[in-house]
Design a protein that fits this description.
- The structure is a single chain.
- By secondary structure, the protein is α+β, with helices and mostly antiparallel strands.
- It has one domain: Glutaredoxin.
- A four-stranded mixed sheet has the order 2-1-3-4.
- Helix 4 packs parallel to helix 5.
- About 10% of the residues have low confidence.
Protein backbone atom coordinates (compact mmCIF):
# COMPACT_ATOMS: atom_id res chain seq x y z
CA UNK A 1 0.00 0.00 0.00
CA UNK A 2 2.85 2.40 0.84
CA UNK A 3 4.45 1.65 -2.52
CA UNK A 4 1.24 2.41 -4.39
CA UNK A 5 0.77 5.69 -2.52
CA UNK A 6 4.40 6.63 -3.14
CA UNK A 7 4.08 5.94 -6.86
CA UNK A 8 0.84 7.92 -7.02
CA UNK A 9 2.48 10.89 -5.28
CA UNK A 10 5.45 10.79 -7.66
CA UNK A 11 3.17 10.60 -10.69
CA UNK A 12 1.06 13.56 -9.52
CA UNK A 13 4.20 15.54 -8.72
CA UNK A 14 5.58 15.02 -12.22
CA UNK A 15 2.35 16.34 -13.72
CA UNK A 16 2.79 19.51 -11.65
CA UNK A 17 6.29 20.02 -13.01
CA UNK A 18 5.08 19.43 -16.56
CA UNK A 19 2.36 22.04 -16.01
CA UNK A 20 4.92 24.67 -15.02
CA UNK A 21 7.14 23.71 -17.96
CA UNK A 22 4.20 24.12 -20.34
CA UNK A 23 3.11 27.42 -18.77
CA UNK A 24 6.65 28.86 -18.91
CA UNK A 25 7.03 27.86 -22.56
CA UNK A 26 3.65 29.38 -23.48
CA UNK A 27 4.53 32.65 -21.72
CA UNK A 28 8.10 32.84 -23.03
CA UNK A 29 9.59 32.44 -19.54
CA UNK A 30 12.66 30.42 -18.61
CA UNK A 31 12.65 27.32 -16.41
CA UNK A 32 16.41 27.06 -15.89
CA UNK A 33 17.87 29.58 -13.45
CA UNK A 34 21.37 29.61 -14.92
CA UNK A 35 20.12 30.00 -18.50
CA UNK A 36 17.93 32.91 -17.37
CA UNK A 37 20.83 34.45 -15.44
CA UNK A 38 23.08 34.36 -18.51
CA UNK A 39 20.29 35.86 -20.65
CA UNK A 40 19.70 38.66 -18.11
CA UNK A 41 23.42 39.48 -18.05
CA UNK A 42 23.59 39.54 -21.85
CA UNK A 43 20.47 41.73 -22.18
CA UNK A 44 21.40 43.97 -19.20
CA UNK A 45 18.03 43.32 -17.54
CA UNK A 46 17.11 42.35 -14.00
CA UNK A 47 16.29 38.70 -13.38
CA UNK A 48 12.87 37.85 -11.95
CA UNK A 49 12.90 34.56 -10.06
CA UNK A 50 9.49 33.28 -8.99
CA UNK A 51 9.54 30.32 -6.62
CA UNK A 52 6.30 28.37 -6.72
CA UNK A 53 5.13 25.08 -5.32
CA UNK A 54 3.02 22.24 -6.69
CA UNK A 55 -0.58 22.20 -5.47
CA UNK A 56 -0.36 25.84 -4.35
CA UNK A 57 -3.56 27.79 -5.08
CA UNK A 58 -1.86 31.17 -4.54
CA UNK A 59 0.87 30.18 -7.01
CA UNK A 60 -1.79 29.23 -9.54
CA UNK A 61 -3.49 32.59 -9.03
CA UNK A 62 -0.22 34.43 -9.55
CA UNK A 63 0.34 32.59 -12.82
CA UNK A 64 -3.26 32.65 -14.07
CA UNK A 65 -4.34 36.13 -12.97
CA UNK A 66 -1.23 38.26 -12.60
CA UNK A 67 1.60 37.00 -14.80
CA UNK A 68 -0.90 36.19 -17.56
CA UNK A 69 -2.47 39.66 -17.41
CA UNK A 70 -1.74 41.27 -20.79
CA UNK A 71 -0.30 44.50 -19.33
CA UNK A 72 1.85 42.68 -16.76
CA UNK A 73 3.05 40.16 -19.32
CA UNK A 74 3.99 42.85 -21.85
CA UNK A 75 6.04 44.71 -19.23
CA UNK A 76 7.73 41.54 -18.03
CA UNK A 77 8.82 40.70 -21.57
CA UNK A 78 10.39 44.16 -21.98
CA UNK A 79 11.78 44.87 -18.52
CA UNK A 80 13.05 41.60 -16.97
CA UNK A 81 14.08 38.04 -17.72
CA UNK A 82 11.63 35.72 -15.96
CA UNK A 83 12.48 32.31 -14.57
CA UNK A 84 9.97 30.07 -12.79
CA UNK A 85 11.13 27.35 -10.41
CA UNK A 86 9.35 24.80 -8.28
CA UNK A 87 10.50 24.88 -4.68
CA UNK A 88 9.82 21.18 -4.19
CA UNK A 89 11.34 19.90 -7.48
CA UNK A 90 14.00 22.33 -8.64
CA UNK A 91 16.12 22.55 -5.48
CA UNK A 92 19.74 22.18 -6.47
CA UNK A 93 18.93 23.72 -9.85
CA UNK A 94 18.93 27.28 -8.48
CA UNK A 95 20.61 28.85 -5.41
CA UNK A 96 17.74 28.21 -2.99
CA UNK A 97 19.90 29.17 -0.02
CA UNK A 98 20.43 32.63 -1.52
CA UNK A 99 16.75 33.03 -2.40
CA UNK A 100 14.79 31.34 0.40
CA UNK A 101 11.08 30.82 -0.04
CA UNK A 102 9.58 29.76 3.30
CA UNK A 103 6.17 30.18 1.64
CA UNK A 104 4.94 30.25 -1.93
CA UNK A 105 4.84 32.05 -4.20
CA UNK A 106 7.81 34.31 -3.60
CA UNK A 107 9.27 36.53 -6.31
CA UNK A 108 12.78 37.94 -6.29
CA UNK A 109 14.07 40.66 -8.58
CA UNK A 110 17.80 40.13 -8.87
CA UNK A 111 20.77 42.04 -10.23
CA UNK A 112 22.28 39.41 -12.54
CA UNK A 113 25.81 40.80 -12.23
CA UNK A 114 25.95 40.34 -8.45
CA UNK A 115 22.99 38.01 -7.83
CA UNK A 116 21.91 40.40 -5.09
CA UNK A 117 18.21 40.83 -4.44
CA UNK A 118 16.80 44.19 -5.51
CA UNK A 119 13.18 43.62 -4.49
CA UNK A 120 11.01 40.81 -3.11
CA UNK A 121 7.30 40.17 -3.54
CA UNK A 122 5.83 37.86 -0.93
CA UNK A 123 2.78 35.85 -1.92
CA UNK A 124 0.11 36.51 -4.50
CA UNK A 125 -0.24 40.07 -5.79
CA UNK A 126 -3.01 41.29 -8.07
CA UNK A 127 -1.99 42.74 -11.45
CA UNK A 128 -2.14 46.41 -10.36
CA UNK A 129 -0.02 45.70 -7.31
CA UNK A 130 2.47 43.79 -9.45
CA UNK A 131 2.70 46.72 -11.86
CA UNK A 132 3.48 48.99 -8.89
CA UNK A 133 6.32 46.64 -7.94
CA UNK A 134 7.65 46.81 -11.51
CA UNK A 135 7.57 50.62 -11.24
CA UNK A 136 9.56 50.38 -7.99
CA UNK A 137 12.04 48.03 -9.68
CA UNK A 138 12.57 50.54 -12.49
CA UNK A 139 13.71 53.10 -9.91
CA UNK A 140 16.14 50.58 -8.38
CA UNK A 141 17.53 49.37 -11.71
CA UNK A 142 20.00 51.97 -12.90
CA UNK A 143 21.98 49.99 -15.49
Amino acid sequence: MKTILSLLFIALSLFGRADLDEYAQKMGFERDYYTALAKAKKEHLPLMLTVTKAECPWCDRLEDRTLSDTTVHARLKKEVVVVLVYKNFDEGEYPADKFPAPFSPRTFFIDPATQNTLLIINGYVKPNGFLEKLDALKKLWTK
